Each structure stands twice: as C-alpha cells, then as structure tokens.
Write a sequence for this structure.
DNA sequence: ATTGGGCAAATCGTATGCAATCTTGGCATT
DNA sequence: AATGCCAAGATTGCATACGATTTGCCCAAT
C-alpha cells in the first residue's frame, strides 16, 4: 500500500522550511493527514516510506514520527514501527474529560482578552464552518471536523496561555481522530450553532455563560459518539488492554 | 565545565533498559537532574557530551534531548544546541494558571477512585516529605521540592486519566524549575501541611473541600515566588519576547 | 585602543551503513 | 489439513561520517 496520495504536500507554509526544522514540516503534514483522516488509524508509517515521500533521510522522518508519538497521534512499537493511533473508547473518554476540565478555563481567560478584531476573525471562521456543513461528501465532512477543531484552537490562542494552547493542540487533534472513528454519521452538525452561541456569549462579555455553553458543547460532542464497545476490528484489539 | 558529576546514573530503574528505549532512560536521568536542579537553568547540554556521559551515540542522546524539549524542560536553538530551560516569570504564571485549572479536576476524579491502600501510600509519602523538611542543606531542599511534586503526581495517577497525568508530569517538572529559580528561600515549607489537609479531605470523601484546598495550595506556592522582574540575566532575555 | 575581517575549532543537521529484530513464506512433519 | 520450523526479506535501532553553521580568537588596519 502506498500512502503518498494521502498526503497533501502543500499544507505546510513554505517559510516554515527556513525558520523551523524540516522534521517539523513533515510532522505538520502528517498531522493534518491524520486528523482529517486521509491516513486511517492503524496505518503503518514506515520510516523509509515517510522519508522517501518527503525526500529526506530516515533520520529526519524518524524525528517527525517521534514527535507525533509524543502527542499521541501515532503509536510506536519497538522494532516494529509507527502506526496511526487507534484510540480506544476509554482513551476517548479521557480525552473529553480533559477537555471538559481545560476548555472552560480557556473560555474564562479568553473573555478577558478577546478583541473586536478577534470576534470578526471568529465570525469568518464560523462562516467557513457553515459552508462545509452545507456541502456533501466525505471531503466536506473532513473539512468540517477540521474547521470545528480550529474554532477551539483559536479560542486557546486568544486565551494567551501557550501551555494550555499546546495541550489543546494535542486534545483537539486526538479528538478529531476519535470523532472520525466513533462519530455517528449524520449528527456532527450540532456543533456549529453551539460555536456561535459560545462566541455570542464571549462577545457580550459573559464568561460564565460562555463556559457553561462550552461544557454543554463538549458533552454533546461526546454524546454523539458511539463508545459502547470496540468496533469489530476483532481479536487483536480485543486482547490488547482497555 | 563538566556536567558528569551532576547526574545520578542510578536513578533509572534497571528494567527500564530492557523494556523501554535507552533514550527514555537518558531522558529520565536528565529530567531528574533538571527538576532537582543539579543542572542549573541555562546549562548547555551538548549532544556529544550527553552521549559520551551515558556511553551512547549522539543519535540516542539527541532523541532524549528532543523529548525534553517537547516537554519544555530544555530549549533548543538551531545549530547551537540544547540548554536547560530558564522559564520567564510570564511562563511561570502560565504554568500555575494551568495547574489551577487542571488540579481541581484531578482531585475531583481522585476522590471517586482513591482506595485505603492509596491513602496509606500517600501518608508514607507525606512522612518522607516531612523528613526532608526537617533536614538542612541544599540537598534536602531539592529532595523536598521533588517529594512535594511527587505528591501531586501520585494524585494524578490515582485520578486515572493518563492524559491529564502526562500534562501534570510536565507541569510539575516545570514548576520545580520555576520554584528553584524564583522561590524565596525560607518559605517553601508551607506546602507540607496543605498536602496533608488535601489528603484528609480526600479521605473523608469531601472532594469539594479537597479541590478548594488544592487551589489555595497552588495559590500559596505561586505567592511564594518572586516573579516581579527577570533576574539579571541581561539583554539577551530582555530583548527576546516575554 | 578599538574595530573589522578572516581563519580555526566546535557543534549541529543529516545521510548512510551495519547489526539486531521482526515478519513472512515455504517446507517438512504429524 | 494443520502445526512447527527455518531461512529470506524487510524494518528498526544505533553508530558513525561528512557538510553546514556558528563561535571564538587572532591580527591587521584605522
């Protein structure tokens, strides 16, 4: 199997190349491919394959994979390689439990710092979200999940705490994976109106209400998942823990 | 300058070597050296030096440093190397803001799952903390800071959310660095009684009270710091952001 | 005395080679 | 037909080599 067609090479900004590391760019590319599910959970990411795809040596590919492993998007097994994470329902629950803890705090911090310019940026973001919502097809669905995650990341960025921002980066990425895995098909649209509701509350300076809405929003996302039991990938996963 | 005498090679469990990666063991060793400040902030950790210290090649030393960079304990500058982090007051504030957000949730989760065996483990841990508190000298101070952090990590482990546990791992490590940097000398002892108070509330099943106590505890730790302005590391830090 | 240029040493970034480990396919045995 | 075994192929773990970049030093010129 070849994963080359699954990866969009243009989604890394070109100036990243000069300032940052090359492995960083590869990480970004793979990250994007994973969170909007062009790379399915369980897909093997071999060092040489990744390396030749991006035209770098295994050393640099390996560094990118290590970073992804660190943020939980891939799992590495010794002497076997790296695989796109296949989060268990338990993992999914813990991800959302973490978000319920962190995001109200982010909202509370954001309401103190948000500017009118931020508000209009958010409005534009929500418009885009709406657009994908109205489109059909799996590509639009993926874009919708990604845009929905971006809303939460923008919020974290406005909150101005770089540590929480990084935590949210990881949580949102893993959430996207979980939603793609366990989400019931038709229902993911509920998120959009809730985003606007949160933003409205923020605009009015009502942090209390915004935080409450955010918790409900997260509850709804999780409620829309089917976390009952492992999807029938059979035996192998059934025997592994959780 | 040689950093070899600063590193305690025995603080990695021997069975780690077989099961885990070697770079993981090096990371642990360096982590411990950093958080109890045998390695001062700003210390350069060159790849070859670390490599020869642990008798591995630069490749594996580099992997360890990358992990430490990821969790914020070292900062790497391109083509210059890795340095033990020198957190700014702003960073310190963000670290404690994050803890104020996360730890009450951890306490709330822990109160649901804590067992009598856990309680006695905590008591033993607190006894050890007390012991270091009564000793004099910088070594005891370091051990005290570490033991104090371990209390919070044990709590996270009881809470049973591996994601939050990892976040706390990072936050506690960085807190230790911050305390060592900005802590006023005589006052760090206030933490101990607060730990026992939290534990008492947990034992009684009063999660509400335990969470409140935990927030106060974090407030006190932060209040004991001197975050007014940058210590005179001069120019270079002054010109860099934050 | 100070400033500027240039060379040398040190260190990082990356590629590649080799050994160890795992997987896979085929063959013999039951 | 099913199971166990073994060898070939593939892939990772790690070490080392080489080029690129930075730093520090020395010396000449002003």
């Amino acid at each position: 199997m070849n994963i080359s067609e699954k990866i969009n090479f243009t989604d890394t900004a070109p100036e990243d190349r000069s300032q940052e590391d090359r492995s960083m760019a590869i990480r970004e590319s793979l990250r994007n491919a994973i969170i909007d599910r062009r790379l399915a959970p369980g897909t093997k990411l071999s060092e040489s394959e990744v390396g030749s795809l991006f035209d770098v040596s295994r050393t640099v590919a390996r560094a990118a994979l290590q970073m992804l492993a660190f943020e939980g998007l891939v799992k590495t097994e010794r002497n076997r390689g790296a695989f796109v994470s296949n989060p268990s329902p338990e993992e999914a629950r813990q991800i959302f439990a973490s978000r319920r803890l962190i995001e109200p705090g982010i909202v509370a911090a954001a309401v103190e710092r948000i500017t009118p310019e931020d508000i209009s940026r958010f409005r534009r973001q929500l418009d885009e979200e709406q657009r994908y919502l109205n489109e059909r097809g799996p590509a639009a669905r993926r874009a919708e999940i990604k845009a929905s995650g971006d809303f939460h990341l923008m919020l974290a960025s406005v909150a101005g705490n770089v540590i929480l921002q990084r935590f949210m980066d990881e949580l949102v990425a893993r959430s996207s994976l979980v939603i793609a895995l366990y989400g019931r098909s038709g229902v993911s649209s509920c998120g959009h109106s809730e985003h606007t509701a949160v933003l409205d509350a923020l605009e009015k300076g009502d942090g209390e209400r915004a935080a409450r809405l955010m918790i409900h929003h997260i509850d709804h996302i999780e409620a829309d998942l089917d976390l009952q039991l492992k999807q029938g990938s059979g035996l192998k996963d059934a025997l592994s823990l959780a």
Q: What stands out?
A: Confidence is low (pLDDT under 50) at residues 12-19, 231-242 of chain A. DSSP finds eleven helices and three strands in chain A. Residues 21-22, 56-60, 78-80 of chain A lie near DNA strand C (CB under 10 Å from a C1'). Residues 16-84 of chain A form a domain with the Arc Repressor Mutant, subunit A fold (CATH 1.10.10.10).
